[in-house]
Amino acid sequence: MFSISTRRRLLASAAILVLTLAGQAAAQSAPNQSPSGQIAATQTRSAPARPAQTYDLKPQDLGQALSAVAQASGREVIAPQTLVSGRTAPALQGRYTADQAFERLLANTGLALTPVGDKLVLRQAPAGPAPGEPQAGDAETLSELVVTGTRIRGAGPVGANLISITRREIETSGYGTTQQIVQAIPQNFGGGPNEATLGYNNRNGAYNNAGLGASINLRGLGANSTLVLLNGARPALGGVAGLFTDVSLIPASALDHVEVLADGASALYGSDAVGGVVNLVMRDRFEGLETRLRLGTADGDAQEGQAGAIWGKTWDGGHVTLAYEYYQRGRLSANDRPFATEDLRAFGGADNRQPFGAPGNIFAGGQYYAIPSGQNGVGLTVGQLKSGQTNRSDQQRDTDLLPRQRRHVVYGSARQALDARTEVFGQLLAADRRFNRRYIGSLERTTSVPVTNPFYLDVLGTHQPVSVRYDFRGDLGKPVNSGGARAVNATAGVTRSLADWSATLQGGYGRQRETWRNDNTINSLRLRAALADPNRATAYNVFGDPGSTPRATIDTIRGYDTGQGVYTVWSASLRADGPLLDLPAGPLKAAVGAEWRAERYRQSTVTDLTTAGPVAAQTLFPGRRRIAAAYVEARALLLSPSAPIGQLDLALAGRVERYSDVGTTRNPKIGLDWRPLSSLTLKGSYGKSFRAPSFQDLQVGPGLTFYQPVALPDPASPTGSTPVLALVGNSPDTGPERATTWSGTIEYRPPAIDGLKLTASYFKVAYRDRIANVNANAFNLLIERAVYAGVITDNPPADVVARYYAAPELTNPSAIPAAAIKAIVDLRNRNLSQVDEDGVDFDLDYRRPVGAGEIGLGLGGSYIFSVDQRVTDASPSVDVVGTVGNPNSLRLRGRLNWTQGAWSTTVAVNHIDGYRNQIPIPARAVKAWTTADLQLAWLAPKDAGRLAGLKVALSVSNLFDRDPPFAEIRSVTSAVGYDGEKASPVGRLVALELVRAW
């Protein structure tokens, strides 16, 4: 959409425009201008007068009280859950108008309701969101509010800590994409399917990210153990076999807020909610028209551009929202980052370049002979070879740390009342994303050159085939991986009010199609034929510089593979909630529901790598999976706020779920809230969770299983390493995962410090039969034999090794013979015995008015005490927290926001503590990494004429351009100098954003 030169000119022009407009309009800033940074979308108008009503409300949760008045009076109230959470409303008895009732409920709370059209928006007084912006952060209509963690309207979850990222926080973060927003959440671990991990490790399912999407991995328990919802509904899944929700397809400009429940929630939501639930809530109540243009640049070609618009309109009984977003980002080349290299000696690491080059190396008689450069292999003699030396090449050169991405997304939602008690609704999200990246591939090959080759060189005089280790990149070019993801997610339903109850019938459909293609790879069959060709004019020549072989012959060995995977899901649900009966302290409310879902994944491939021509295949994943479930939730106010020991809320939930392929599971949960003081809330929860194996977990056979000989470090070996045969893929006896979760939360609002809220939550997860592998510690298997004894088979029988070597799944790039294998190591996904994780989440939030503005301070983080992992039943428990492949002990995000008149400034500090890199021998420490983000924003005042409604923001991520801390990350095939699971290679990114409300 935008060329690099065009983007730079636009950035410069827009920056000049910002300074000019700001200088002209600063003096015109209205003294009562809202400092929130929100943009007015509609004009305020008075709502019609309402008759007085008789109320008889006991002291209760503020959100529930506001909901009751909203329902009785017919006034629509919009409020952030973060404002009502933990607050208790006084009793309301007598006859009041709606305005009088709301005024009494909000007395002495520091909150106020502001008219926005015919709605009332709850905000802090006097500072808060600008009139005309009905989003109000994470706002929903309280009379229909359903918050993540509960199925009962008008209340937050009992016993659990709900983390909410509001629209205001999204705007001030300076991030342009949904994946950037969620990756900044301290509870989210970057390991697993994400752009920066594919090709650099096989941990946490990273290698299954065929469409180069982005996942969420709460607690580091796995992306497939985190349930991601879109407006409360399950979208189609991405990755091979549907392993995760691809949040890169969600338009950030249409995102209202993000709710994070970092607690087991299978009792309400079913499978996958072991690590928690993330609900991406869209701006379905937007009013007006808003357009957006964003341009960003970082060192190298990591340029980005974003353009979008959102429009919404409300009429009597209905509302519609439409949004479109385009996003593109250029590739980030490894050549532009010094730490992206295999030769890490400059950083204190090792030279991990392998003995492959162009010209290559002859390996004969147990030693290397480097072929000299500057010649084409014609007339080469043994005397010209460099005995004992090797030619090496860096596989990281000319690859991409991040791919080029382009994406289009359309989102729409609508609601319409059919009568006073019936409403229909629907939503649709359609996305198309394309990527292109240069990757390492497998072009460093050990070739066997027969005596028929016209360039054959008999180093030892044996007249036998000679082994040459050659880098084919100079001939074929760098391997290129391209493809994309196309997704459609739709839901529709009807809601019917039944006295005090509400029932909803909803259906959904989702489909995500991912395509991929790998070019500039080698067809090994045709390569062998070209090496055996006796004709000098057509034979392949690996004894000279790149290009010594005729182009026609090079094109002959060029192979490719391509494929597509399609995940589809159909769903239907019927749910209802409302009061059951009145208890002495308050009503007993309940929610019941039944759900049905059918899922399927299909994959087809075309491969031109080992045969004379392309071969098409259909990967046989398990067939259609059908899930039927029923759940019930009850919530009771056991003690009212006037009780001697304070208010006590109890919630019970249970779910029965039957899978057509893995059986039935029953999961309960209990939650308790105790408010001994109006300023103090204590919460606790206990529950059980379940994760059914994915289609990928259950798939075995060609395409997903392979065997590879590799030399692993071994202190017991005289050479320091031992050749082993690694088994990679899935174990055939994989079963379901189960977990037990506990949590305890303290929320405190000091009465003496208005605007301050302190939250701390302890969590514990006992996760058994977890489906995982030990790839993260592959290089330590023989060093820590006691820990990994269950996956090591020493001295395997020769016939067993021979069967693996004869299998088509064998890949042997290092040409290790079967006779050299001393052990078999099982690196396959399997049900590990248990993972126990515990820690504390915490957050400090403080806001106070300052003149015509506001200042806000905050610090959120997660501290993990331990991640005790047992590989097998017989293995000792090992604490892996703070190691490569696992979450770090401490992660923080601090924030400072200051607004004054038309200006606002936001500073954020991100910190991840140091950890241990167990891959090198001996293990090495990785330093902590701290970065800062900055945003300066200007909102044109209302009387700025044609500029009214314009917001200009300059955002800088990684303000001081801090490189990732050095970490020598080695895989079986390559190495790099940073950890893509825990740090970003982008560096400083400067972005300018223009947002206009019309």
Task: Describe it.
By secondary structure, the protein is mostly beta strands. The chain has 13 helices and 51 strands. The protein has a 22-stranded antiparallel β-barrel. Helix 2 packs antiparallel against helix 4 (98-105). The model is unreliable at 1-50 and 126-143 (pLDDT under 50).
* Estimated helix fraction: 10-25%
Tally the helices. Answer: 13
The fraction of residues in strands falls at: over 45%
User: Helix/strand-derived class?
Assistant: mainly beta
The rounded Rg comes to 31 Å
| Main beta sheet | 22 strands, antiparallel, barrel
Mean pLDDT over all positions: 88
Total strands: 51
Distance between the termini: 24 Å
What characteristic shape results from the CA principal axes? elongated
Query: Which runs of at least 5 residues are low in confidence (pLDDT < 50)?
Result: 1-50, 126-143
